[in-house]
Amino acid sequence: MKGIRWLLVAALMLLPAYSHALGLGRLKVHSALNEPLNAEVEFTSITEKEIKGLNASLATRADFDAAGIERQPYLSTIKFTVAKRLDGHYILQLQTEQPLDEPFVHFLLQIEWPGGRVIREYSALIDPPVQVTGKPPQVETPPAGDPAPPSPRKDHASRRQVKRPANDR
How many domains does the chain have? Predict the structure, then answer.
C-alpha cells in the first residue's frame, strides 16, 4: 500500500512536465483598412517539438457554427505561417494577398500539434489608414506695413450711472 502511494505521488509530480500546453497571446494587427492583412499572434508558451508538428488554420465550419460565429468568405484567404523573431520568440503570422475591406475581423483559429488541439476566438477592429495629403495648406500673411490701431473699447459698465437712495447722499 505504501509503495502505491509513493508511485501516485511521483506520477503527480511528473504530471506538470507532461501537461505543457501551447499558449497563444493576443492578436496584433499591423495593417490598415483596404490594405492586405498583416497581423500576428505570439506564442506565449511553445517548445521546439511543438513547433515541428504544428499546423495552424482557420477552424472548421462546424466549429464556427458551434460557437455561433459567422464564417465570412474573406477569412478563407488568410495564410497562417509560423515565424521566429530576432528575439527568439515564435509568432504566427496572418496575411492576405488582397486588401481587406472589412473593418471588423472575427474568426476562430485552430492550432494542432502532436500534444493536442486548441481553438481560440480572435477579433480585431481594423483602423482606416492615416491620410497624408501632402504639404499643409499655406497661410496667407498680411502685407507688411503699419499695424492698424486698435479700435477703442466700449466699456458699458463704466458709463452706467448708479442711482443711490436719497439717504446715502
Answer: 1
